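Summary for the steering committee. The consortium agreed at its last meeting that each partner would contribute one worked example illustrating the joint modelling workflow. Our contribution is presented below. We chose a case with several input lines so that the handling of multiple components could be demonstrated. No manual editing was applied between input and output; the record is shown as generated.
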Amino acid sequence: MSVRTLPLLFLNLGGEMLYILDQRLRAQNIPGDKARKVLNDIISTMFNRKFMEELFKPQELYSKKALRTVYDRLAHASIMRLNQASMDKLYDLMTMAFKYQVLLCPRPKDVLLVTFNHLDAIKGFIQDSPTILHQVDETFQQLTETYGGLSAGEFQLIRQTLLIFFQDLHIRVSIFLKDKVQNSNGRFVLPVSGPLPWGTKVPGLIRTFNNKGEEVRKAEFKHGGSYVAAPKEGSFELYGDRVLKLGTNMYSVNRPVETHMSGASENLAAQTQESIAPNPLAKEELNLLARLIGGMEIKKPSGPEPGFRLNLFTTDEEEEQAALTRPEELSYEVINIQAAQDQQTNEELARIMGEFEILDQPRRSASKGDDLLAMMDEL
Amino acid sequence: MFRRERSIPLRGSAAALCNNLSVLQLPVRNLTHFGVVHGPSAQLLSAAPEGVPLAQRQLQAKEGAGVSPPLITQVHWCVLPFRVLLVLTSHRGIQMYESDGSVMVYWHALDAGDASLVQAVFARGIAASGHFICVGMWSGRVLVFDIPAKGSNIVLSEELAGHQTPVTDIATEPAQGQLDCKPLENRDCIADVVTADDSGLLCVWRSGPEFKLLTRIPGFGVPCPSVQLWQGTIAAGYGNGQVRLYEASTGTLHVQIDAHARAICALDLAPEVGKLLSAAEDTFVHIWKLSRSPEGGYVEVEHCHGECVPDTQVCGARFCDPSGSSFAVTGYDLAEILRFSSM
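What follows is the complete predicted structure of the assembly.
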């Protein structure tokens, strides 16, 4: 499908990650200076110039699991640590939120406005660092250059690619359930009222023309929905009114982060199939992943700054419980790639991953391939 | 009025692609065949009238280099004068099977050249005209394959250059069907193939040993994901929710319907009765009746039925019989085929 999809997928999921982390940092009463440092570190890593260069190269999407490793890295780019259960929950929330935004996007092109909403909010998170702000603005410019000239057809292909990436993912998210935008079976509610996409007329009119092009008849019909025309088009400029609210921060202190885990039983078979089947293309994916993550520069925590652990759940007990009760088909734990088959790639990836390795984690000494998988597991 | 019938379960959910449902009716055995794309695989199944699935088959796109398994873009049954072939298009090429999907009789690999580095390469848009099968390409070209009455000696006979952007859909109609309503002197310019693309441009062709471009109907900035042809009238569904009807031979616009609130993803025709079906991402399926105006002779439209499929981003919809008294619908992320029939 479209080879222009990865930057949008990465930036929007990253934006959702930051919304959630920001909310949890406040909920967990992490001191302000530490919280600011965490967000600044992650944003700076996310928008690193070399990493963005790799990201914007035309390429296919990674599997959900491979992409998850990128966010594992990103979430650990600062002094904050997340354990497996919290990281799972974080990734679930991010993916479901962006799936919702892509699905509800009025026009395919509006996925760019969703991205801009995320970038606008990310800029608001940055504290006292013109350098990081500049990084985000550079990415904004790159987005405008890459996507500004694309046709409606190309955006449609991008949207289809994103929807195929999120296909069969039906995790119930409490904030969506409460807002009645998600049904209890995990499917999103598609409204049949409200503003139309920009450029679409209110359905209900049939106009007939004769051979000379003169209108000879105007008839109405009942569409079944009740829509209003879009008030104006959202701004694609660096600063402007995006009009569209999709992609803005939906969390606040009063609206905490919660999830209900549920593998939609009807699609269980398909999902398990995906995780069991060995992927012969994994080697190549690993290769690309190595290149991508290679562009991500993570500063090792230096100095006396003590780290802390962030919990996506209200209590530690809940977190433990979630780790035990997580449905198997939703597990990201083992990246099912036959890593041991390609020594060279592995060494490269292991080297890169090793650079970010948190030193106090015990390392199993085995082949490099096992190391890599172990590192991914340990996150 | 239509009522919901028992739906047919699918092994995998339908992918978010336009025209993601193909239906083949075999009146002899009273079976209906359905084809749906899941992503890297497509599912074929046949069902008896009461909706019980009888036989199922999974088809995969042929592997090739790449990070992920190639995605299928469309499956479609091509009814030719002497045989029926199932055509599958993907990001790797074109696969043609015997109608039950059991034997692959032809494979055409896409030659991307350097294009694959900067843009997606795929085939999309499938239709049969006489003994030809036309398949659209990412580049805008349309490949015309000459199909023998039997066997696998399929030959690429022509490449049509009418489009500059990726082809979305192709519609055909037996030229015979139009003969009755045409003056004798115009029979050479009977349009029997229409191709549509991502920019909304339509190209109207006369098929034959050499295809002839009759006219081009310009787009207006939105894609045209689905197109149909009925008695010399083109029905085109657009990304802004509009359905437009044109005179195929001249390209004259006769009807413009503000039909849907979101992009249209599928159109279908019941040729016996001139019924048109339009389905869109706004969760609605509409059925329209086409007729010729008694005075001017141009086409007119009447709305017959609207069906909401709640919370479903429809991605495929087809009539299940030539008289348009039943239809089937697929939706993104939905692992079933929904069926409706008139009461």
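Chain B touches chain A through 68 residues (CB under 8 Å). DSSP finds two helices and 28 strands in chain B.
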